[in-house]
Amino acid sequence: MKKFGFSIAKKLGEGTLARAGTIHTLHGDIQTPAFIVVGTKATVKALTPEQVSCLGAQAVLANTYHLYLQPGDELVWDAGGLGKFMHWDGPTFTDSGGFQVFSLGAAFGKGVSKVAKGEDAEGSGDGRSSSQNHSAPAKVDDGGVIFKSHIDGSSHRLTPERSLQIQHNIGADIIFAFDECTSPQDPHEKQKHSLDRTHRWAVRSLEEHKKLRGTQALFGVVQGGKFQDLREESARTVGVMDFDGFGIGGSFIKEDIGTAVKWVNAILPEEKPRHLLGMGEPIDLFLGVENGVDTFDCVAPTRMGRNGGLYTNDGRIAITNAKFVNDLGPIEKDCGCYTCKNFTRAYLAHLFRSEEMLGATLASIHNLYFIVRLVSRIRESIMAKNFLQLKDEFLKRYYG
Amino acid sequence: MKKFGFSIAKKLGEGTLARAGTIHTLHGDIQTPAFIVVGTKATVKALTPEQVSCLGAQAVLANTYHLYLQPGDELVWDAGGLGKFMHWDGPTFTDSGGFQVFSLGAAFGKGVSKVAKGEDAEGSGDGRSSSQNHSAPAKVDDGGVIFKSHIDGSSHRLTPERSLQIQHNIGADIIFAFDECTSPQDPHEKQKHSLDRTHRWAVRSLEEHKKLRGTQALFGVVQGGKFQDLREESARTVGVMDFDGFGIGGSFIKEDIGTAVKWVNAILPEEKPRHLLGMGEPIDLFLGVENGVDTFDCVAPTRMGRNGGLYTNDGRIAITNAKFVNDLGPIEKDCGCYTCKNFTRAYLAHLFRSEEMLGATLASIHNLYFIVRLVSRIRESIMAKNFLQLKDEFLKRYYG
Q1: For chain B, how many structural domains are there in total?
Q2: Which of A241, B168, B259, B395 is deepest in the core (most CB within 10 A)?
């Protein structure tokens, strides 16, 4: 039984590709646009599933590379699949592991990683945690990739078929085709060569997926770097394949969203959902939605939170800043999150200064609530046809 | 307005000092015997107050020394007191800071600390976290103690009066007189000298407490090391003072509970509650209750939990042990805690192996539930007059 679908409730028009819709999965619906919370290793860092649910998250995205290495996809299968294993009842995603294999291997140090500071491994945006990666590049050929585990240095081979088998074992509702991830610095020729391989792998991913007869939805991944011809070729090629939806991959900065993402979404079939992989800063969300993105995932809210960085409507604050030590107000007035309703800035500052784990928990709750709620407000603004007004107002205030 | 009281519902008899009762505070009742959960720095490590409440905890004990240094007792006062600051609605305790001042200072390295392994600072059982302590002993005289902060090395003076002022600012429901904490290795003469000072400080603590006119209950602290004459002298001396209850201090091992604790409780006035400071292993709880203790606090459940040590009725297990990697059962069958109802041993093993913070949270919930529930069962067994049977059965199974 397969039960996946996507319906569009409203298109904004007004020169944008923005739309509001609903993704249907076996584990419930996702109202889109939506921010998918990252739970890399089958846990949203520092939060219980109930906390994730209470802050408004609709779905969780885990990481194939990480779960394959630890605890192993077969254990997740034995445990009843990702949702049961981590006690999350709602819809789940896994990415294909492609990004991690390459960011942990061949492309390491060449700028594939979306993470600037080499922090702890999380989500679809990184996985770098050992210097051994420098000396153990992933080896890629048309068959697949051989890479070394960042945990114990053991050697592994990932192919489109293996990625699909692993993702079927993990059992998320929405899974992704295995792609080759390039460095944004790679020249056109190299991008083209890699893109052709990604397209061949897309075909193999689809074939394996059909063979496995799972209940899952498979999304194809569009690549092509910053080159318009490659992005459009990729959208045309992957767009006509029998995927349930699409991931837009690669390393983006916000300037690419109005170009690369727009080129792609202008071509991809309108009736299928599109996921922008690994982007989720406020500006990314507005630009992504404006240019036809339905779902996002990003480690920023939780990673930033663990470091004491907090979203407010007036921009980010660092709770470790001395001025918050005696501040008995909430992080943000009128914020509806658990943290703001029950704790002060002074208390959070105390937790971070004391290196208490609850600090990371409360900050992650606030940040995820902020971002999830922001995307939810964006959805409402599409339905009410005032998206561009919200965008202007929000960005003006947030970025000052 | 002061609203503190203690009523005894049932005395077990049968050659024991065990009793079941109720402590009444402004923030609610505590059914005794009770395990008081430790929230050293105004947070129960890795848990939200709701999680603490849901696992059955009735009250939280924070640490005067730690809160005085960071974030400062005046901020806690400004925030509305400990309960409001940390968002805990129920009854609260603070210890006097005496133990930490001495374990971080003069007595450091001489065995005052109840903690064997020098782990992270928590609760009433330690505070050692910096090697600078070795070179900066606390200086004690009849006036009070001068010590250096373990955080920044700054110099501070704590006296009975200051401790009470700080504890009034922090604003817990139950607070403790400032005492001098000795090393269990100290000879009789030194213990006696120190005990006399603790008794003079008890008088000064009481006087300052009356001057401050707070709504709090003040517990006097009985010391005396392992010497029967000193313990009994201390119980007689402190026992007749106008305290609302008593703390039994010092460094104990379980062998001392049937002696030192029994000597003390045979003398202390029956109608006032007694708190055994910093002890809480299963055997301690049974022996403590049998010998007249009403409340306990201990960092073991949370500290052990953060290291992957888990209580079961068949003894402790280490979840990081290889045999749990594929174990899809709960930590303990029929355990009613949130962790056991929703997660497997394999999932916990995965979280600990992946160094995911949720592991510490789930393990702390289970361990605290286990201990809180155990003391609650002990209470029920006193009411039902089958305490000794429960003790025999539990200890036989737990310690094998």
Answers
A1: 1
A2: B168
Per CB-CB distance under 8 Å, the chain B contacts of A356 are 41, 43, 45
Cis-peptide, bond into residue A137, ω within 30° of zero: no
Residue B318 lies in a domain: no
Residue B136 confidence (pLDDT): 56
Residues of A in contact with B47 (CB under 8 A): 358
Q: Which residues contact B188 (CB under 8 A, 6 or more apart)?
A: B227, B230
Q: Which residues contact B59 (CB under 8 A, 6 or more apart)?
A: B25, B30, B34, B36, B37, B90, B91, B92, B93, B173, B295
Mutation site for A-interface testing, chosen from B55, B350, B364 by largest number of A Cβ within 10 Å: B350
What are the b/e assignments for A252-262, b being 16+ CB within 10 Å? beeebbeebbb
Interface test with A, best of B327, B347, B365 (most A CBs within 10 A): B347
CA-wise closest residue to B134 among B121, B148, B119, B122: B148
A357–chain B nearest CA distance, Å? 5
- Segments forming the whole domain that contains residue B175: 5-306
- Tell me the per-residue pLDDT of B152-186, one tens digit each, with 9 for 90 and over: 888 999 999 999 999 999 999 999 999 998 887 88
pLDDT digits 0-9 by tens, B198-251: 999 999 999 999 999 978 999 999 999 999 999 999 999 999 999 999 999 987
Q: How many interface pairs between A and B have CB atoms less than 8 angstroms apart?
A: 102
The C-alpha angle with vertex B170 and arms to B165 and B175, in degrees rounded to 5, equals: 70
Tokens, residue B42: 């105004």
Q: Which chain A residues are closer than 8 Å to B66 by Cβ?
A: 354
pLDDT at A123: 41
What amino acid occupies position B164? Answer: L
Distance from CA of A121 to the nearest CA of B (A): 10
Which chain A residue lies closest to B325 (C-alpha atoms)?
A71
Q: Looking at the domain assignment, is residue A23 inside a domain?
A: yes
**Interchain pair B346, A79: CB under 8 A:** yes
In whole angstroms, what is the distance from residue B79 CA to residue B140 CA? Answer: 32
**pLDDT tens-digit profile of A4-38?**
999 999 999 999 999 999 999 999 999 999 999 99
Contact A346 B43 (CB under 8 A): no
**A93, HSE (Cβ side, Cα atoms, 13 Å):** 37
Q: Is residue A322 part of a domain?
A: no
Q: Which of A357, A362, A364, A366 to mutate to test the interface with B (most CBs of B within 10 A)?
A: A357
**Catalytic site positions of B:** 95, 297
On whether the CB atoms of residues B147 and B44 are closer than 8 A, the answer is: no
A297 catalytic residue (yes or no): yes
| ipTM exceeding the 0.90 mark | yes
Assess if residue B394 is contained within a domain: no
Q: How far apart are the first and last CA of chain B?
A: 50
Q: Residue B351: list chain A partners with CB under 8 A.
A: 41, 43
Reported as a pLDDT band with limits 50, 70 and 90, residue A181 is confident
The reply to whether residue B47 touches residue A342, judged by beta carbons under 8 angstroms, is no
Domain harbouring B39, CATH code: 3.20.20.105
Q: pLDDT tens, A141-164?
A: 999 999 888 888 889 999 999 999
Contact B328 A356 (CB under 8 A): no
Whole-prediction pTM? 0.94
Q: Encode pLDDT of B300-340 as tens digits.
A: 999 999 999 999 999 999 999 999 999 999 999 999 999 99
